[in-house]
Amino acid sequence: IEYKVTVLDQGNSSPESPDGQFCSSTTSALGEISSDSIQQSTIKEELPRRICLVCGDTASGFHYGVASCEACKAFFKRTIQGNIEYTCPANNVCEINKRRRKACQACRFQKCLRMGMLKEGVRLDRVRGGRQKYRRNPLNNPYQLQLPHSNAITSGGTTLEDNKILEMLSSFEPDPLCVGHGGIDLMNRQMDVKVFMDDRMGVDAQEMLSVLSDLYDRELVNVISWAKQIPGFTDLPLNDQMKLLQGSWAEILTLQLAHRSVPFNGKLYFATDFWLDERSAKECGAVELFSHCALTIQRVERIAASKEEYYLLKALLLANCDVKLDNYGALRKFRETILNALNDCVYVLRHSTAVFHQQQLLLLLPSLRQADPIIRKFWSQIYCERKVTMNKLFLEMLEPVSR
């Protein structure tokens, strides 16, 4: 297999594994069992078996944000640290499983990314137990907020208002959608939206899907307008802007959905007055979508991100998209700007717990990325079965993007 060496996009830093709330790993299970009274073999039998999302082998834990085995963990780390880009000898659709995971390194690496492994999670300094350090030049970053000294917050020397990119994101955050004032004709019924939501016995799945499709389309319009306001985004080549939006919209909309649905009460709020619960999701054939989004919402709720952190994390989803671009250098600069702004924001808000909290925020990225194929699959099937009429923009965004 041929390969060539090139510079891959790299973030600043993030953790290699989440804390206990993200996995029922062997370590947490062992902590509840007395080794004096139970044999080791019995313990192993009782431990939950987690599957590597990349190759299907037994996972040893969460590595770079994803349940994976030691082999795939080492492969991903080696690829990032070595700045290696592989070339598939076939057509980039090789099957990756336990038996064939070594057959094509290119497709294996792409599957690592597709499953949500974070490049930012790999320590580039190669020092065991070490941490990457932010090396910044404020003269080269117009959106840079200087890191305060330990007493800067209490002395009033640093505030969120100094974070210029955050100020822009806050100003252009789209207003929440509302079905009742969106001009949507609910199958020509003259009904109050609250009645529509509270009593769905007379509302069929096609009607709910029609409303949901329109909401997705309206959100896509808002996301495109929002992205153009982010400092640095319009500096990218126009073709790259389109690819980033097409590759990240599902993750962005999932994060917005999670933000709207906290605190979680079993309902996914796609608008202020339109939601799906488990029952209505089953009626619409959206069980997988509902289940994954519900888990993501619960993770977002546990982290308790501020609205400022939410704004920056959403921008990071746009900047962290793995798609083939014309100018990777410009994207790298754009992404570093967002990462630096997020780091600064978390430091101002959390201070003593900033490192841990930023780790938790970054660990949301794999779950959001895993929502992408679920959403695309669901809506592509809806379109193929001609269940509802879908707008042109939505259909264009559903088209596969080269990664």
Give the gist of this structure.
The protein is mainly alpha-helical and 403 residues long.
Q: What structural keywords apply?
A:
globular; mainly alpha; 47% helix; Erythroid Transcription Factor GATA-1, Chain A; Retinoid X Receptor; 6 strands; two-stranded antiparallel sheet; two-stranded antiparallel ribbon; 403 residues
Q: How would you portray this structure in words?
A:
With 403 residues, this protein is mainly α. Among the domains are: 61-121, Erythroid Transcription Factor GATA-1, subunit A (Erythroid Transcription Factor GATA-1, Chain A); 160-178 and 202-398, Retinoid X Receptor, CATH 1.10.565.10. The protein is 47% helix and 5% strand. It contains 15 helices and 6 strands. The chain has helices at 26-30, 40-46, 70-81, 105-114, 164-171, 193-198, 205-227, 238-260, 278-284, 287-303, 307-319, 328-350, 354-362, 364-384, 392-398, and strands spanning 3-5, 61-63, 66-68, 84-86, 268-271, 274-276. The protein has a two-stranded antiparallel sheet with strand order 1-4. A two-stranded antiparallel sheet has the order 2-3. A hairpin with a 2-residue loop joins strand 5 (268-271) and strand 6. Mean pLDDT is 77; it is low at 1-48, 127-157 and 181-202. Its main location: nucleus. It is found in: Nucleus. It comes from Phlebotomus papatasi. GO terms for molecular function: nuclear steroid receptor activity; sequence-specific DNA binding; steroid binding; zinc ion binding. InterPro entries: Est_rcpt/est-rel_rcp, NHR-like_dom_sf, Nucl_hrmn_rcpt_lig-bd, Nuclear_hormone_rcpt_NR3, Nuclear_hrmn_rcpt, Znf_hrmn_rcpt, Znf_NHR/GATA.
